[in-house]
Design a protein that fits this description.
It contains twelve helices and eleven strands. It has helices at residues 3-10, 25-34, 79-93, 107-121, 130-139, 162-172, 192-205, 225-231, 246-259, 270-278, 282-298, 361-366; strands at 39-45, 51-59, 97-106, 144-146, 156-160, 309-317, 325-333, 340-348, 351-359, 367-369, 380-382. The protein has a four-stranded antiparallel beta sheet with strand order 6-7-8-9. The chain has a three-stranded antiparallel beta sheet with strand order 3-5-4. A two-stranded antiparallel ribbon has the order 1-2. The longest helix has 17 residues, at 282-298.
Length: 386
């Protein structure tokens, strides 16, 4: 690339650093000959005629990957080439790095992730060579190792969180409304949304994107007190446990969170919502209800529970001379399952009342409402004496 062209490339709005500091062109060049995975020593003959390693190194990274310089060597001859490399590095910076490279985070998979991500939001960067993905990872300091060491594999393993890599793979294989089926947002790479929005704004305005502050404001929780309590009851060896057991429920729930089939149960009743979404069998619901009650009775971290909504009704009301309104009624199961909790709202001018009552003789003696909460935000807790 000519010097003046390279200056223009480095002044490009997309080359100013989006998820981190601006990427230095010198580092882009330096890693090719200094990174131990991307390069190899140059051999020379000493004074006694022996072949020895010199202090200099040369890259063996080609467009197709490691050990591929003879097939197709790397080049960055245009502004498009340079911006493509920088943007590839930005996508990889969206992930959380790990100390060691991970087999599940390999370059050929991630190069497809970069292609789909950039292709969707920019369009003219829809092909990324495997070697350029490896090059970009090295530039931003992601741990790298050769896949299948000793076999001269074209691919490299990257030090990125595997669950985040799998999340990105799922997202790239879906589009439009089908993406709503992806529920593993607790595995979303931290910089994913910011980079997505930055590229969308650039496409619309052409302005230089702002720089991320490192905080994902829309991050889904990766744990909760109830989550930790429940997964602790799974079999430590990974066995599913007997049908109908708490161990089975906990193990399957933990596997679903780990594999990205669903998110974390923030509150105990969230477990029932998860079971509905995944279409669980009835016996899992029974196990879950028992676990939720056990949590409320035994955990010092419990802030109460909400039970399942079983019926709702809304009817118009003519009012009492100050205008009409409506009346809302919601029925929830009581803890024992034989009665109900009734929540009512009279939204009538001049006669506004809101009330929630445990309509079960047994449960009203064992459970009470958590104080300080609104009628719509009620939760119940065991009465200590009970």
């Amino acid at each position: 690339m000519k010097y003046t062209e390279s200056l223009r490339a480095m002044e490009h709005p997309l080359a100013q650093g989006i998820l981190g500091e601006r990427i230095c062109a010198r580092d882009v060049i330096r890693v090719l000959a200094q990174h131990p995975v991307l390069s190899e020593p140059i051999w020379e003959t000493d004074s006694e005629g022996r072949e020895v390693e010199s202090d200099e190194r040369i890259t063996h990274l080609g467009d197709n990957g490691l050990f591929a310089t003879e097939d197709r060597s790397l080049s960055s001859a245009t502004e498009h080439d340079y911006i493509e490399l920088v943007l590839t590095a930005e996508v990889l910076r969206a992930f959380t790095p790990t100390v060691e490279p991970q087999e599940e985070a390999y370059s050929y998979n991630l190069k497809h992730t970069v292609e789909e991500f950039l292709g969707e939001h920019l369009g003219d960067h829809s092909y990324i060579a495997n070697g350029r993905a490896i090059w970009a990872a090295a530039v931003v300091g992601i741990p790298i190792t050769e896949s299948n060491p000793g076999e001269y594999s074209l691919n490299a393993d990257f030090g990125l969180v595997p669950e985040q890599v799998e999340y990105a793979r799922r997202m790239r294989r879906t589009s439009g409304s089908t993406r709503d089926a992806v529920r593993a947002h607790h595995h979303r790479p931290p910089g994913y949304l910011f980079l997505q929005q930055a590229l969308q704004r650039y496409r619309a305005t052409g302005e230089t994107p702002g720089r991320w502050d490192g905080v994902d404001e829309h991050a889904e929780p990766v744990t909760s007190a109830f989550h930790e309590w429940l997964v602790a009851q799974a079999d430590p060896a990974g066995e599913r446990g007997a049908q109908g057991s708490r161990e089975r429920l906990a193990g399957d729930y933990a596997a679903g969170v780990r594999d990205g089939d669903h998110g974390v149960a923030r509150e105990p009743e969230g477990l029932l919502t998860i079971l509905h979404r995944v279409g669980a069998d009835d016996d899992f619901f029974d196990m879950a209800r028992e676990a939720i009650l056990d949590w409320a009775r035994s955990s010092s971290l419990s802030n109460g529970i909400r039970t399942e909504l079983v019926d709702r009704d809304r009817s118009d009301h003519g009012g009492w001379g100050a205008g009409g309104g409506d009346v809302e009624r919601y029925e929830f199961l009581c803890p024992c399952g034989k009665g109900k909790i009734l929540e009512e709202h009279d939204n009538v001018p001049g006669f506004r009342e809101h009330d929630v009552t445990i309509m079960c003789r047994t449960c009203s003696q064992e459970w009470d409402f958590v104080p300080g909460r609104s009628v719509r935000g009620w939760r119940i807790q065991p009465i200590p004496a009970a």
